[in-house]
Amino acid sequence: MIRVFRICRKCGAKIFSDAPKGLCTACVLETALGISPDAPVAGVDSSAEAAYSAEAAAKAGSAKADDPGRVDELSRDNAKPTSGVKDAVRAATMLGELGDYELLEEIGRGGQGVVFRAKQTSLNRTVALKVIGLGQWSTKAHLKRFRREAEAAASLDHPSIVPIYEVGERDGSCYFSMKLIEGGQLDEVVSRNPMSIRQAAQLIAKVARTVHYAHEHGILHRDIKPGNILLDQKGEPHLTDFGLARLLESESTITRTLEVMGTPSYMAPEQAAGETTGLTHATDVYGLGAVLYQLLTGHPPFAGGTIYETIKLLLETEPRHPRLWNRKVDRDLSTICLGCLEKDPNGRYASALALAEDLERWLKHEPVRARRAGLLVRAGKWVRRNPAIAALVALSVALAAGLGGLIWKSESAPRPSELAATIPEKSIAVLPFDSLSEDQANAFFAEGIQDEILARLAKISDLKVISRTSTQKYKRGPANLREVAQQLGVANVLEGSVQKAGDQVRITVQLINTLTDNHLWADTYDRKMIDIFGVESDVAQKIAGSLEVRLTGKEKAALEARRTDNRQAYETFLRAMALNNSQLAADKARMRDLLREAVQLDPNFADAWAWLAAIESERYFFPEESPAQKERARVAAETALRLAPDLADALGSMGLYYYYVEKNYDEALHWLDRARKIAPNDAKLVDATALVKRRQGKLDETIALQKRQAELDPLNVNLWVGLARSYRGLRDMDQARAMLDRALAISPNDAMVIATKAETYLAAGDVEKSWAMLRGEKLGPGDEGAGVLLNIILARRDYDEAIRRINAMHETGNEPPLFSALDRASLGFIQLAKGDRAEAESLLHDAERELTKLRDQHEGGIIVLEQLMFVEACLARRDEVEQIGDQLRAMRRFDKWTYPLADENIATAYAVMGDADRAIPLLETALHDTYVYAITPAYLRTGPAFDRIRNDPRFQKLCEDQAK
Hints:
This protein is an alpha+beta fold and 964 residues long. Among the domains are: 1-180, 2-Layer Sandwich (Phosphorylase Kinase, domain 1); 183-393, Transferase(Phosphotransferase), domain 1; 427-562, ABC-type transport auxiliary lipoprotein component (Rossmann fold, 3-Layer(aba) Sandwich), CATH 3.40.50.10610; 569-679, Alpha Horseshoe (Serine Threonine Protein Phosphatase 5, Tetratricopeptide repeat), CATH 1.25.40. It contains 43 helices and 19 strands. The strands form five sheets. A six-stranded antiparallel sheet has the order 3-4-5-6-8-7. Strands 14, 15, 16, 17, 18 and 19 form a six-stranded mixed sheet that branches. A hairpin with a 6-residue loop joins strand 1 (5-7) and strand 2 (14-16). Helix 29 (699-712) runs antiparallel to helix 30, helix 35 (799-810) runs antiparallel to helix 36 (817-834) and helix 36 (817-834) runs parallel beside helix 38 (861-874). The protein is flat and about 80 Å long. The two termini are 42 Å apart.
């Protein structure tokens, strides 16, 4: 129910009807702590007090004018302008000490308590101290609610959430201390220095990402408003006051009340209606939209003269369009804002992250996902607001039933936005083309044409285009186009067939809107091979026209671009592109050879040079990494860029060169960002950018990019595995497994995915569960899961099983020299762990010779060095370990994603040698770093490499501290 207010009998401020003794929070707190209202104020003269009171009264006036619907700011704006403000100031300045805290001044208050600037005496630091304002008269419900606020906020660790330092209770007063943010509340800051529209969008995008973080950790804020957003001195936002948050996983244990919680002007309709259960993330999305509305217009969405009037407006009316308040707000931003303020929670953004991403699209001048309400939706809202008038209109329509029936039949056909509200209408998947060629050797051509059309469409910023990796699943022909479209998240699909005979090509295409089952356009092209570019260009332009897509001049030119005049070079290029999605090393090698052939046939073929550069650069990174390979990659990238400076693939290949070869991540991003501006829907460019960001240690940005890639390539198993590894680097095993489950839904029996998921259980200490997942898998030489399986077996101390598995792989005879050397190194360590020193040293010396040879031949890269260091450690060669360790640090020094791995490997080497003094500090640092397959306390507890330092109390503490 709605709370009834009355007046504090002491200072005149508004109070809740059930407030004890008829006093406001400040007066109760003052009385509870035994402070005399006439006590002298130490160190503050009357003029200073008067100045503070005047300033407070001035602030109160502006705050009240900005938000007449505010109810929980039980502060100076609710007090009488003289004695009430004076008493509030006295309460803030005369409280003295509370436990370990010296209260300096009041800096804010809300429905649950008063916030003070305080000095924590024991640590000599200034903090913000929130004290419940009911003192010894606190009810259990109030104290429970207060403690829940502290617990909710303290469980969150995010740079934009105000951290909690300490929770305590003294003489019936409950309090907690938190970081002091010096800038001020958002509404106060904006009243002094108004924000631009762009700044407002940037700020809410940041806050929305913060809210999404809280949601991921099971916490709703439920009271998002300007007063709960603090700006620091750099203008960065910090979210505070989780007093209304509920821990979702324990909601059933919380005593529910009937009170309306929140602030009406920023409160979601479901809250205003008195709902206390079943609230979702959409509740906080509404609060974010309400704050954005305030920033854009200078007014809250709803503000009546009283609390009742405000809530009535909230429940029964629609917010005034932001552009009616401020003509500078453009339509897309207005649509985003109003999309948050829908009465129906299902009509809002699906998550705070979705809101943040749409605001970021608007900031980058990209098309937003939000759509303005259609005529039928607006009419429905009007009917709900005006039922009496609607009844009269209905009667009039009934008198013209014949005509009305015809209109109804035409107007009531299901709209795409109603059938799939989350699917953008300007979206397309180009399904694999059927090859009708009699000569099956020409089957590659159909794949090549599909890929070329996709490449052109990906350059259109106003169109969502699904990557070929995801559409390949439907190569055999989809049974139900609507289901396909829903799986891929698009409204439209392009089907086609290709028939090639000699120099003649027939291409047939049809564009279908799967939501309405309408055939939008179809055509057949009979062309000679040399004229095929005209077909690809025409198809792309016809699609853009049919979907009413906006084309810039550069985009139109990109659609019309001609790749090469050499028919044989183009055909060779298409043969290469047909192998692009293969994961087989032989296919990758064949693709590289075909691209080399294509550029020999036409040295001016920029597209072929760009793809060749990408492959040569990746080959340098692994496994070759030789000076000659570096030169091949550089020449290809520079040639592509010289031939086509504005070609997205050429710019992207230069970015990959700096990523894979030069390890210059800032320069790599420079080129990749330029490429993405030209081809914003190219999933491979988004993927490359995410990989570079991850190398820079920017995991939040990496994950955001990978989620964007998931929109463009939703059925790409490698994408979901990559996203899982990003979460794994953060040690977020639950999220990592959720991503891997997405991958397994696409490819249920993928051994690599299963192994990656098993590793998350091993990292969390559940050795037997990880063993159960992999014990039946047959993993061969070079399989990524083989290393995971070996670690699981070693964690179980089943050395005979480990030897059996390694020998089985070795006996296949298919192992390349690198894996053969790794096998010998592993067997040597196992024999060492078993106590057979002689057998161990024989194997280790063999491994050392093989690894040294590979290193000198520039093969195997950093993996060879890491394993060589491990072998030297097993042989107790300290000088060699230190020398290789320095090399590893130098090689990884610019790579924050793998640099901590160097220290982890060095620490492991020292542990193998029994040097706890050198190993433990490095392990302690690694446990706090985020990086690829970041070490966990469970690995320390189970890994045999640490057996020689296991009894050291410092090592045991590392295992225990984070295991709880």
